[in-house]
Amino acid sequence: MQTKEKSEIITSIKTYLTQSYVDLVVSKKMIIELDKNLKSNKYEKITSPSEFSKIVTEDLQSISKDQHLIVRFEPERIAQEKRIISEEMKLETEKKMMMQMAYINYGFTEAKILDGNIGYLNLRLFADIKYAEETATATMNFLSNTNAIIIDLRSNGGGVPSMMQLLSSYFFDENPVLLSDFYERETDTKTQLYSFANVAGKRSTNKPIYILTSKQTFSAAEAFAYTLKHLDKAVVVGEITKGGANRTKRINLNDEFTLSVPYIQSIHPITKTNWERKGVKPTIETNVNEAFVYAYIDAINKTVKNDKLNVLNKIGYNFLKEKSVDDAIIVFQENVKLSPNNANNWDSLGEAYFIKSDKENALKSYQKALELDPNSSSAKAMIKKLNDVK
């Protein structure tokens, strides 16, 4: 790369930041950083276009903390855009895209009914409803008779607003609800996003909804979690998310480089702000591995009225069968908390600790079980077995 080309790219980036970036104050700070780096010849010795785009992106994000703001080296993509494409080729491209999306089931990786009649959906992508509405409808119909729904977004990096709008609509009635305001600085215009008055499937308006998050949950997935949390429609469980709130467009800087620039600000109708740079803070904050089990337990506690101890006990043993011993321990601990004088609960907890090779806690649990039920042969046998272990 020549110094002149790099300088021209930086100049172009500065122009678009001033013109379009959501926050004018931050854009000015980024421009100062770029000018400083040009003056110090930071970019002079970089010869690789990919390395140049990577370093400039890092410089922009070091100031903005905006993970949607990216410089890319992608000449093939730009050339493809400029090519005159026939209607036939457009249809073929569209067909290929539909096939690719169908191959991953439009992000709907898994949907199932858990013990206790709790629905579970693992959603990896917010696909355009132009392609995915039928799959979304089928999934929401499948989950509609459950007592609660857990939506797993721990591996979801985002997508498009239309799917966020559609899925949100299933948790409200037919009266449209304001989901988000949007503001574009460049044109000084405001728009709004409402839930749909009509959906093809059955709504789930009066049941607990749980959304699982991780540090990798991003963009449209964050919008879904943040929107439903602050409209009191969902409990968010897991980790604080990645923190990308604003809508982005990709601009060609020249024939080789593009700039993804956030240009529309999301504004929640209740909080009057968004999750940019902060991430979505969970209602129940826990690590990524334990998010599912804590959401599951909370759903059971809120929805199961009869025989809750046996339901939880069954769930715990299912986790043991799946070799999810830590999750089983958490479930059995919940049962002990709900009914501390039940010997069987302590016995189950002891078994889980034993499988984990936690001799100390296994022994304590079995001793408690025996204290509550002196005739428990299983507790006696396990205590002897544990005491014999050196």
Give a concise summary.
This protein has 390 residues and is an alpha/beta fold. It is built from 14 helices and 11 strands. The chain is 49% helix and 16% strand.
Description:
The protein has 390 residues and is an alpha/beta fold. β5 (178-184) and β6 (189-194) form a beta hairpin. The chain has 14 helices and eleven strands. It is elongated. The model has no long low-confidence stretch (mean pLDDT 95). It has a six-stranded mixed beta sheet, sandwiched between helices.
Characteristics of this structure?
49% helix; six-stranded mixed beta sheet
Fraction of residues in β-strands:
15-25%
How far apart are the termini? 68 Å
Count all strands and give the number: 11
* Approximate shape: elongated
Rg value: 26 Å
Unreliable residue stretches: none
**Helix-strand topology string:** HHHEHHEEHEHEEEHEEEEHHHHHH
Return the average pLDDT rounded to an integer. 95
The main sheet orders its strands as: 2-3-4-7-8-11
| Assembly context of the chains | single chain
Pairing-aware structural class of the strands and helices? alpha/beta
Helicity range = 40-55%
Number of helices: 14
